[in-house]
Amino acid sequence: MRYLHSITLLFSLALATSSCEKDDAGIADPKQEATSTSTELYGKDWFDSRQPDSSGFKLYQSPGQTLPFGNNGFRFEANGTFVRYTIAPNDGIMKIPATWTTANGQLFHIKPNNAQLSEYDLRIEALQPSTLKAQIVP
Questions:
Q1: 101 lies in a domain?
Q2: β-strands 45-48, 120-127: how paired?
Q3: Which long-range contacts (C-beta less than 8 Å, at least 24 apart) are formed by 52-55?
Q4: Which residues does the annotated region (Disordered) include (predicted)?
Q5: Taking a C-beta distance cutoff of 8 angstroms, is the pair 68, 54 a contact?
C-alpha cells in the first residue's frame, strides 16, 4: 500500500512538471503586447545579447547600471526621450539622444536629435522585467 502511494505521488509529480512549458529564450509569450505605459520598459538600459531568433527579432537584456563593453543597446524614458547605445570609434559606448512616439505601444518611432541621422522604428514583441525581444525596422 505504501509503495502504491509513492508511485502515485511520483506519477503526479512527473505529470505536473511535464505540462510546464518554457519559451526557448525564457521570455514572455510573443502574443503578449508591450504597452507604452509599461513600467518594465522605462528607465532601463537594454543591451543586445546577440541572440537573434529566426523571425529577425533580437533578445535584449537589462543588466542594471553597468554598460556592457562592445554591445549595442537603447534606453526608453517615460517622458519620450530615448538613447541609443552604439560602439564609439574609441571602442567605448557612444550615446545617441533621440525622442520616441508610439501609437500602439508595440511599434515605437525613434527620431534622433541629430538631423543627419535617419529615423527608424523599433518593434517590441515581448517584454519581461529583465528581457525583451525587439527588432529595429529602418
A1: yes
A2: unpaired
A3: 53/25, 53/133
A4: 26-47
A5: no
